[in-house]
UniProtKB/TrEMBL annotation, chain A:
Keywords: Cell membrane, Membrane, Transmembrane, Transmembrane helix. It is a multi-pass membrane protein. This is ABC transporter permease. Pfam families: BPD_transp_2 (PF02653). It comes from the Bacteria.
TrEMBL record, chain B:
Residues 6-241, 256-495 form the ABC transporter domain. The keyword ATP-binding applies. It comes from Antiquaquibacter soli. This is Sugar ABC transporter ATP-binding protein. Pfam families: ABC_tran. GO terms for molecular function: ATP binding.
Length: 327, 497
């Protein structure tokens, strides 16, 4: 028992990590549990397996898009075009399926997602337009293009229900499985790969990142590309769930994504944020929406709640930044 | 106009337990230009910030017009007519000259600005100064010298009695300097007291009636300008205790092979003209010059941050100017930037990450960073450079001391195997003990075959580090010293005092 003590005299004190990392995510977990307890007292249906799965299914698209969204925010970037992007993807899918069949349409939809990511990435990294303006512009462009292709109509799509509705494994719907896969992969990417760590470095200090030889523009471009890809997956899930594509779908999805990411502890100042936090943020958002619905509260109030949550999350972030810089 | 007399008596001030001013006196008298002279870190800025009410002194008294005043805060300083013109402009670039001149005191009624009165006030002041600047132009569109004059006009419109100018000529052309001096003299003749901070001796003799030299937080000399010589001023600034700053013990070792940095007739915009120098493996060469002398531009050219306008540069065995930091890094150049916080460290990231950031591709396999390899990079250099971190894989670099941070950033390039190294102000904001450790580490590295170019504005650093020193003054190569000729006196005089 005593033989190894001498060689580790200067060995670091491990608990430091726990002490410092715990508060953020732990506080979120507490909020989530508190919300769950509250809603279960308000509605007998809340705490049923079906309803909990329902929350997950509804949160799946937000979560899938919020995962690369976290990566972007960590690098000090963000993508507001995801909502109209998802609707656009749905329209592309439904429209091309009638022309060339479903397999080709899926490929086209995925390609369209990558193109969206490339356009955003090009504008931000090569033209040097900031992410807010760039993605606000593509938000409008994609919403408009979707309307044009769909001719302002809702396009029906049959024979493409499995992606959104099938339960191939343990009775879990496909979107939830995809969510889990995306979240795990992104968490690993952010934590262990050169790409992920470079994004943290870029967000923490863009000048220093450039001077350390990190290819900041390539990395950020890659982040937008991943975001575009996630948008196409999310858009496909949405169109599959509904069996139809509306150019007006996914209104305000970007707000949910940004809210979840910031709620999850990613800082608008960059360099800080985790996938675990974002997952908790997504779940809190989903729980809130679900619970308010079960309580028969008007969906308009859900928008209000979401906005308040975003303000609260950003306000908290600002307080934390001020606290940190005061030290 | 009534003239203000303000005296600081036995002022002391500490930051974080380090006393930067020891019982310093200063007299500011209306109708006189007082030059405040001293090296970086001598305490000039702290002293004038106390004068401007920005800092509260820890001890001492402030006497205004013969009456002892309990304290000087930004508000009371303003009331007394004390104004400071900072090195970095504190104007609003998007607003007009007229708006800036009355900034914070825009005339009007009930929140509605009277543009005619605003403009008239600006024209009055500018007219008094005899300056031809359009009050309607936005300040951002003005040249640096004009901007400075607008700031002075603003102080004047505010009825300044005591004007503090903090190294106002750093970014000015000779013509603009001449104009500025004219305004300063005019203000003095109107009874305004001027405290003029500088480290250029020429300006002292040209402008000042009296000169006060600070050194390491003490007053080293106070005298009428006419009673003092250049030599005396340099000695007061540098000190006779200069013998304590010793040259490295291992001088005279032969260089090891061809130069890794070779610069010929380098020209960078209008900031560097005709610089030539070589740095070979096995030697530490210092490029020494005052702030604004062009030394930083040379360093930036070596690392592909700034593109030179003319000349030849051969670095890391490749001919031609590096096109970007990535290009320079590929040639093997390592670069320690002057501003650690802004350009060097990822403050909220861990020590290990900061150290490994330039070597991730080598420490990873298929894009996945191997934690063990990353950690071993830290272990490789922590002992050699004396980096002290309680838990390098978890601790954020922000929680290390300045000296330790700097060692981590140095190790970033050593881990990458970079050679040559370009180190800009390597010990800025580093305490004395750690400074010596960094110096001996740099010397040791050079003995092992590193070519090191140290760019510094601290002559003590050059004396303690360099095999050879190239001195720059106002963009030009002023002198080169080697061996025993590298002395504080030689360096400061060559750099323009």
């Amino acid at each position: 028992m005593t033989t190894q003590l001498d060689s580790t005299a200067t060995e670091p004190v491990r608990p430091a990590r726990r002490r410092r990392r715990l508060p953020d995510t732990a506080a979120l977990a507490v909020v989530l549990v508190a919300l769950a307890i509250f809603f279960s007292t308000q509605s007998p249906f809340y705490l049923t397996p079906n309803n909990l799965l329902n929350i997950l299914v509804n949160a799946a698209v937000i979560g899938i898009i919020a995962a690369p969204g976290t990566l972007l925010l960590v690098a000090g970037q963000f993508d507001l075009s995801v909502g109209s992007g998802a609707a656009f993807i749905g329209v592309v899918m439904a429209w091309s399926a009638t022309q060339w069949g479903i397999p080709t349409a899926v490929l086209l939809a995925l390609a369209a997602g990558l193109v969206i990511g490339m356009v955003n990435g090009f504008a931000v990294t090569v033209l040097g337009i900031n992410a807010l303006i760039t993605t606000l512009a593509t938000l409008a462009i994609l919403r408009g293009l979707g309307q044009v292709i769909a001719g302002g109509q809702t396009l029906l799509l049959s024979g493409f229900g499995d992606l959104g509705n099938a339960r191939p494994f343990l009775d879990i719907p496909v979107p939830v499985l995809i969510l889990v896969a995306v979240v795990v992969v992104m968490a690993l990417v952010m934590r262990f790969t050169v790409f992920g760590r470079s994004m943290y470095a870029i967000g923490a200090n863009p000048v220093a990142a450039r001077l350390a030889g990190i290819r900041t523009r390539t990395m950020i471009f890659g982040g937008f590309l991943l975001s575009g890809l996630a948008v196409s997956v999310g858009g496909l899930i949405l169109v599959s769930q509904l069996g139809a594509a509306s150019p007006n779908a996914a209104m305000g999805l970007e707000l949910s994504v940004v809210t979840a990411v910031i709620l999850g502890g990613a800082s608008l100042a960059g360099g800080r944020g985790t996938i675990l936090g974002t997952v908790l943020g997504v779940l809190i958002l989903g729980t809130l929406n679900n619970g308010l619905t079960l309580m028969n509260i008007d969906s308009f109030w859900q928008d209000v709640a979401r906005g308040v949550l975003l303000l609260a999350a950003v306000g908290f972030d600002q307080l934390r930044l001020r606290f940190l810089s005061d030290k | 106009m009534t003239q203000l007399t303000l005296s600081l008596r036995d002022i002391s001030k500490s930051f974080g337990g380090v006393e930067v001013l020891h019982q310093v006196n200063l007299d500011a008298v209306g109708g006189e230009v007082l030059a405040l002279l001293g090296e970086n870190g001598a305490g000039k800025s702290t002293l004038v910030k106390i004068l401007a009410g920005d800092y509260t002194p820890d001890g001492g008294t402030i006497v205004v017009d013969g009456a002892e005043s309990a304290e000087l805060n930004p508000r009371s300083a303003r009331r007394l007519g004390i104004r400071m013109i900072h090195q970095e402009f504190q104007d609003a670039g998007a607003l007009t000259v007229a708006e800036n001149i009355s900034l914070g005191r825009w005339p009007g009624r009930g929140g509605v600005i009277s543009w005619s009165r605003l403009r008239r006030r600006a024209e009055d002041v500018l007219g008094q100064m005899g300056v031809d600047i359009d009050p309607g132009a936005t300040v951002g569109s003005l040249r640096v010298g004009e901007r400075q004059i607008v700031e002075i006009a603003r102080a004047l419109a505010d009825d300044a009695q005591l004007l503090i100018l903090d190294e106002p000529t750093a970014a000015l052309s000779q013509q603009e300097v001449d104009r500025l001096f004219e305004w300063v003299r005019r203000l003095r003749d109107r009874g305004v007291c001027i405290v003029y901070i500088t480290h250029r001796l020429d300006e002292v003799f040209e402008l000042a009636d009296r000169v006060q030299v600070l050194r390491n937080g003490d007053v080293a000399l106070v005298s009428a300008t006419s009673d003092v010589t250049r030599r005396e001023l340099v000695e007061a600034m540098v000190g006779r205790d200069i013998g304590e700053v010793s040259r490295p013990a291992d001088l005279g070792a032969p260089t090891l092979g061809e130069p890794l940095i070779s610069i010929r007739d380098l020209e960078v915009d209008d900031q560097v003209a005709g610089l030539s120098l070589d740095v070979s493996p096995g030697e530490v060469v210092c490029l020494y010059g005052k702030l604004g002398s062009g030394t930083t531009q040379v360093a930036e050219a070596c690392f592909g941050i700034r593109r030179p306008t003319r000349g030849q540069l051969r670095i890391g065995g490749v001919e031609g100017f590096p096109s970007s930091p990535v290009d320079a890094i590929r040639r093997g150049v390592g670069y320690l930037p002057p501003d650690r916080k802004r350009e060097g460290a990822f403050m909220n990231r861990t020590v290990v990450e900061n150290l490994a950031a330039a070597s991730w591709s080598r420490l990873s396999s298929l894009g996945v960073i191997l934690a063990r390899r990353e950690r071993s990079a830290y272990d490789r250099w922590s002992g050699k450079l004396g980096i002290k971190s309680a838990d390098p894989t978890v601790q954020a670099i922000a929680n290390l001391s300045g000296g330790n941070q700097q060692k981590v950033l140095l190790a970033r390039w050593l881990e990458r195997g970079s050679n040559p190294l370009v180190l800009v102000e390597p010990t800025r904001g580093v305490d004395v003990g750690a400074r010596q450790e960094i110096y001996s580490a740099i010397r040791a590295l050079s003995r092992e075959g590193q070519a090191v170019l140290v760019v510094t504005s601290d002559y003590e650093e050059a004396v303690q580090l360099a095999d050879r020193v190239v001195v720059m003054q106002r963009g030009r190569q002023a002198a080169e010293f080697a061996g025993d000729d590298v002395t504080a006196q030689n360096l400061t005089i060559a750099a323009g005092g």
